[in-house]
Each structure stands twice: as structure tokens, then as C-alpha cells.
Amino acid sequence: MSSDDSFIGIKKVLAKVDLSDTWLYHLIKQGKFPGPVSYGHCHKWSLNEVNAWMDERKRARGNKPKRVTRPDMVRRIQAMRSVERKPA
User: What is the pTM of this model?
Assistant: First the structure.
């Protein structure tokens, strides 16, 4: 953790990563998201660790094939149907 790191609460973490609290804690339990720093009843996350997790997700996304968007899917289905309807 660098000296310019700051800590953020659960509301800011959830807003930043756009996950539900249930899913966030599920990822923490699996070791796929950084856990909080706890002192007393207070739980805070390292902003640098959260940002690093987001950067890793972006890099991992780059290795996956592009998802087909709904308009593309509709055009493909329409094209298949028009081929099926043509008389032989």
C-alpha cells in the first residue's frame, strides 16, 4: 500500500464497482476481491486495491471474445429465417 492510499467505506466501494453487497462479500469470501481493513466495528477498503482489482478485470475482459449485442443477434436471426423461407 502506497503512502497516498486512502480508505473508502462500503457505500463508495459498491458505487465504484457497481456490485451488490451480497455479491461483493461472495467475491471476498472466494478471494477474488480484496477484503476490508477492519478496526473495531469499522470496515474500510484500500482505494488502491479496489482500483487494482478494477484494472485487472479490464485486462481480463480484453482476452475474451466480443459479446454479441442484441441488435446483432436480431439481424442474425432474421437472416437465418429469411434463408429458411426461400423456396427450394
Answer: 0.65
